[in-house]
Amino acid sequence: MIALPAWSSLTTTQTLRWNAVLVCLAELVPAGATVVVDGVHADVVADRLAEALRAAGHPCERLAGLDGEVPCWPDGPATIAVADGREHRAHPPAGGWDVVVWLRTGARAPLTDAADVVLDLQDPTWPVIRRVSERLASSDRWYLTESRAFFAAKAATWDTRFGDDLPAYAAAVREGGFRTGGVLVDVGCGTGRALPALRSAAGPTGFVIGLDLTPEMLAEARVRSVSERASLLLADACRLPLANASADGVFAAGLLMHLPDADAGLRELARVTRAGGRLVLFHPSGRAALAARHGRVLRADEPLSEGPLTASAAATGWRLDRYDDAESRFLAVATRL
Prior knowledge:
Layout: H1 12-28, E1 34-38, H2 42-55, E2 60-62, E3 80-84, H3 85-89, E4 99-104, E5 117-120, E6 128-132, H4 143-152, H5 158-162, H6 166-174, E7 183-187, H7 195-202, E8 207-212, H8 215-227, E9 230-234, E10 247-253, H9 262-271, E11 273-283, H10 287-293, H11 306-315, E12 318-325, E13 330-336
Parallel strand pairs: 1-3, 1-4, 2-3, 4-5, 7-8, 7-10, 8-9, 10-11
Antiparallel strand pairs: 5-6, 11-13, 12-13
Helix pairs in contact: 1-2, 6-7
């Protein structure tokens, strides 16, 4: 188990990242709430959260360990109670815990749906909020900042870790049936691994655009964008800076699973795609393999399961033409209605 570093050992940038997360969490917690932090390092994170709440002017009481005793809840309707650990979580107040924070500390640790907030601590110097319950806050309050933080820390080593996926990207683009000479857009382009294949599909007279939310990813994509004559744009997939029906095809690798609302994302992709245009949703690992890598079990109601994706596509302006969830890759191809 990797120890959670002390404040004094963090760099200035790492300290700012921790402070940004704690300030966000403090803003999410309602007055008078009961909060339990669970997972590895729960005690340290609970201490830091309590400090952040007090610094923000919220009355806060840090609950001590139970040691077999009944929890002693603070007086005062505005006082926030912060507890930690499995034992506290198993002994909630009468109305249940108002906020459950789960600390994800390993690549195989699940992004559990049982928590109101999931805090990713795979890199203990670089925490990232991965999920917030809609009842606590809309995605607008945390999605952009935390998504950028998640990918920024990985941009420089992304191609080193996943460079072997390039042939799979090329195959997915070929199977998409994109129109030669059209405008092809890679939404969530990352380091630009699909840009060479998209240039081949678009042909010499077509246009290729790569969009990503994270400046560090676009910096890594710069060399490919130059060699493939592709334009790069810093943009949020939920609010694309493109005109209605301006694209002939959209390629999106691993995108929907990172969006706060998959249907809203599909609807935005439909907005910018002309009638008859193509959409390719792709991941270089099959859903089962990816779920196993993250320590979770696939559910039938997930957005990328065949039934929900078919229904979502139809509801957002698409017709799902192909669905291939093999062990080695995920590929879904749709046509704009």
